[in-house]
Amino acid sequence: MEAIALAAVGIFIFILGYRFYSKFVAEKIFRLDPNYVTPAHRFKDGVDFVPTNKFVLWGHHFTSVAGAAPILGPAIAVYWGWLPAVLWVVLGTVFAAGVHDFGTLVLSVRNKGQSVGTLAHRLIGQRGKILFLFIILILVLMVNAVFAWVIANLFISYPASVIPVFIQIPLAIWIGHAVYKRNKKMLVPSLLALATMYIVAVIASKVDFLQIDLVQYMGGEGGAGLFGLGAISTAFFIWIVVLMVYVYIASTLPVWKLLQPRDFINSHQLVVGLAILYVGLIFTRPEITAPMTNPSADQSWFPLLFITIACGAISGFHGLVSSGTTSKQLDKETDARFVGYLGAVGEGVLALISIIAVITLFPSVEEFRATYSSFTASNGAGLGAFIEGATNLATGLLIPADVASTIVSIIVVSFAATTLDTSVRLMRYIISELGVEYKIPSLEKKHVATTIAVGASAALVLIPEGPNGFGSGGYLLWPLFGTANQLLAGISLLLISIWLRKLGRNYMVTIIPMIFLMFMTLWAMFEQVFTEWAWYADGSNMLLFVFGAIIFVFTLWIILTAVQALLKKTDPDFSGDE
Amino acid sequence: MLEKLKQLIAFYEEVLEMPHRTEIARELRDEDDLFLLMLYSEMIGIPNPVYYYTLELYPYMIERFHDWHLRMGMEKSPMTGIRCC
């Protein structure tokens, strides 16, 4: 079967979902009102509350939510064959993610533009707020560890990407300076920066000494590293230290200096990446060589699939963006359908191409099976397979393979680095907020909070040892990341359901995905925690066990709260305005 | 065709500039707030030798005054003479 047909079917279903399902939800469930005065108009202040054109808002929303996660998850999940992964991405986007992103946006718009965190506070009280903070804390901690691991490994596998990625830092600072201090337009500088990065990437792919290959410097894979570690482990350790120093500095700088200009460049990269992959798909027209299903999987796809692909099918993180910034800038309430639902579809499209890149890579089913030999192996191999697959598609545009793989790895590293930067910053804020909550003033200090954030993330990424020695176990954290993300989505869906119930509307469209999601998350977590990681199991890992158990308890807690809140007849504090 | 391309570029640029515009507006607002605070520092107990003259700016500031005192964490107007809320 040609992969292009699969992409076409997927996109066709997305279009149907938008055309019919989102219309149904908008008209019959949320009953969007074009005359409703949105927070952007009601509290218009020219800063946070600004009515914005829906296309522009969608573009911004999409670039804020799309990152490395919708690439990594699907690239791992194809282990169970392409059919389950594609079905979950497509149906998850249409029935869960679309409604979730759209719903959180409408909920926030109808509640003065407040974020889901604040709404959880009003709904479940102070306990709800703390619970919410802890879940986000776990989520960002997982994000930090997983993405630091991703970047370190890409630097080791694709040494040509190191210099272009590091060049992005001074370029971003230059753009920040040009834009904010000299008041220049940003389109041209950011395009110039992107061009510089890619030119350097081309040169670095061709010139050996521009490839910062730490493993080679230590005498290749068998070489001896520092502190009695092997060469790869030492390289991994060095990259993690470098990254942690970088994020410490980056997350304490003002956002306009580094983080935002990086985002400008990354927005281009998102467009370039998606264009290369989809246009490449049209030109190369590859056949799908991976199996449709995997009957001999060592771990069942059910329910693990639903936490392996979080972003791309449904992601709680989107709710934070929807209700955090997007809802304050929505011009007309009816625009919410376009911005929210299509924002989720955009991410679904990215996840879909990630699956296609991997399932068209291998020449035969046997070779696919050799790489994706077990679930653990797939966790480690997924990202590499995506980069090779994307390189394959890019060669359709006559880009040489070595250059293409460098550029694709730069794109993935840039996404991961920005996510890392943002989430360390977020973690710092949360630690400070917990400091206020528990009256520990020292936690409110910027450098104390950042040190804790960076230290905890580094400890987490360095501790779990995998089968290939130090540093190879970071992917073990992936299911935990997925779970925390789904948990957050579950809370948001719950909030929307309670709100809809209060208004006397049909809340099945949100409660069904919520129950499905919570059920799968709980089941998957139970399986992982008590049969894989517990001290009596074969793959015993106390750290993962503790984290898993905490998340498990949180999930149970949320379900109990959900039942309680849904059964409660009236919530005087939580009406929203009609 | 060229017109469409120009529209596309303008759209793309606007998408890129959204967070940037917010940041600029926020910085500007912070500076304005600081300026107002300096003008009316007597209200929070910091002696201001030119207070008498800054009061003359009042008619020009009155509309923004309400937003300002809210942002400064004062729920009600701190001045008895000004009853904006």
From TrEMBL, chain A:
The keyword Cytoplasm does not apply. It is found in: Cell membrane. GO terms for cellular component: plasma membrane. Residues 3-364, 376-524 form the CstA N-terminal domain. The chain crosses the membrane at residues 6-21, 62-82, 88-109, 130-152, 158-180, 187-204, 224-249, 270-288, 300-321, 341-362, 403-426, 447-464, 476-500, 507-526, 542-567. One of its GO terms (biological process) is cellular response to starvation. Keywords: Cell membrane, Membrane, Transmembrane, Transmembrane helix. It is a multi-pass membrane protein. InterPro entries: CstA, CstA_N. Belongs to the peptide transporter carbon starvation (CstA) (TC 2.A.114) family. This is Carbon starvation protein A.
Automatic annotation (TrEMBL), chain B:
The lineage of its organism: Bacteria, Bacillati, Bacillota, Bacilli, Bacillales. Pfam families: DUF7990. This is DNA helicase. It comes from Planococcus salinus.
